[in-house]
Fold each of these.
Amino acid sequence: MTILDKILAAKAEEVASLKQSYQKGQKLDKIISASLYDSFIQSDKMSIIAEIKRASPSKGIINENVDPPKQGKQYQAYGAGAISVLTDQPFFKGTMADLQAVREVVDVPLLNKDFIIDEIQIDRAKDYGANLILLIAAALPKSRLQELYDYATQQNLEVLFEVHNEEEMAVANDLQANIIGVNNRNLKTFEVDLAITERLSQLIKKPDTLLISESGFKTTLDVERMVSFGVKGILVGETMMRSGNLQATFDQLSIPFEQKENR
């Protein structure tokens, strides 16, 4: 089994339990209307989805003692266009309480970063304050992805539709996803290659698509490489979680688009 297979097997068990214990609308503590698409598509600089992630299957423990609301407030203060909160517990050490706690202290769009395979997870994401959810093309058949995509948009949630290869990009195009995330990390091997975004960016059909590149960003040069391929936003997790100077990290990665164009 690949890492993704193991995660999805565990997620199926989690969803079965959730259907016994969770009812739509039981939280709803704080709801903020915020569009990642509108914010990123209009920005004159590279927008950042800054991620809160304690651990990962590939890296192990990254920052086990992170205080999610404190980290979220810092991300917003230093210029994050959106914040991603990993809520998978077995493999990433996250919780839905992390998402809820961050929502209480920030106003930027909030991504519930998890392995979504059922509508009940979408209900829960909205209840806990998310503005958008992640759908991973590699995780489900096309027909099921379409159902979940439609359900999320009906709940007024945006969808970050994640792809990793040509076949998955074709699915994104067929679904007419307006926010496409290219994951530079292979979910089967967890190796990272920024060339994946370069290759797949050329296959997007809708001109108004918002392209997000995910994983592998450490330097300004990494980001500059993406600008010419139409990338408007980057998702940054490990680099943020290990940063000893978040302001400097944001300054390095959130470059004005003309900075690259004028060189």
Amino acid sequence: MRLLATVSYDGTRYAGYQVQPEQMTIQSTIEKALAQIHKGDVIKIVASGRTDAGVHAIGQTFHFDSNLTIPIPKWKAALNALLPNDILIKDVVQVADDFHARYDVNQKRYRYKIWNDQDANPFQRYYCHHVDQPLDLEAINRACQFVKGEHDFTSFCAANSNTKGSKVRKVFDAACERDGHYVIFTFTGNGFLYNMVRILVGTLIEVGLGQMPPEQLKRILASHDRTKAGKTAPAQGLYLDKVIYRSVTGSKTPT
């Protein structure tokens, strides 16, 4: 049977999601726990997408196949008993045999957190990006309006990306809000290119600091030139917040 799990993790001490030689990753840690449950058999997991070193997740998802007769409600406890306390399985459900955790994604939501105060917060250094100058959220949200919709996001894709095919993506929502000293960005779309959210945030920070006008976002998008956009914001502020599926047997279109 095929199972779909929802997982939260603190990415601080991991070399990203994907398995890497001689590195501790989210995928390798979860697969090690599954191997223990399956008496040493190798069980591969397939996630909705990769996250980089230092990036966190609140609602990452992955699927795997198992021939064990463990009742579905018991899987969550079985996995959590074997995982470290910075990885938490939140839910496990059975899905159709042709379900795919990556290809059946309908929408993803990312959040990015900034600690916006003159003084850094030492307790948030692994969970927020520190910006010590005031940010103009009204200007940022005006710029966000140009991000919404379907665009070619080449300008907001890492130059070293191996993304093949179209770089057109649809962003349903892009916004920024303040909560005390926190400034939180939210992006929801049908898919995101490599480093797209972090480059968007880095560029929007420049808008918030008055270093570029909000309307510049429109021109950056039209340029299809990564060098026109801002710096890539640091990894530790990024969270994969939620993955939404159209159904358990959706069409196979990569995001």
Amino acid sequence: MSYADITERVAEAERAAGRPEGSVHLIAVSKVQPEPRVRAVLEQGHRLYGENRVQEAEERWSALKPDFPDTDLHLVGPLQSNKVRPALELFSTIHSLDRPKLAKAIARIAQEVGHSPNLFIQVNTGEEPQKAGITPDDLDAFVAECRSMDLNIQGLMCLPPVDEEAALHFALLAKLAERNGLKGLSMGMSADFDKAIKFGATHIRVGSAIFGERVKPA
């Protein structure tokens, strides 16, 4: 696979779903990837990237951003409350708002710095005890709480259980978003983004299919 292959597959999935071309935002997940691989995709014109960790993103993009200043960075991994301030400086969008404590921290620091990021609420659609996220039963109340704090909630995000049919979770997330008047759906990764697009994904998170297998730190 390559960046060109993935963009063509995205376009094909959009057409198959009867959706306008360009309606799906491809987040190239650059976490744990060597800088030359990321730079190569940047040089092909792609500007939307996802990172898992604030510190890793700071280190990587301090070198790359001067050459590609229009890059749009999204945080797609978990966010610790004590990392909110640097996250707001670096990322336009956070896809992992997963608990009330974090919502309150973002609201407080957003007031201090004078801007709020776009936010996706992470929903634990499989209600897995080891996984972060708001349960479907608690979601409506959490959305209302976030809105009361003037947080900029764009949509919902999910990570389906690995041993279950992803389409069921994509359909559930779409239903929950519609019920709460949210248009953004951050769902689908390298193995299943075609299905996610069929169910209305607005943002897909693709890493290894673009860059190759991750290179873990030594």
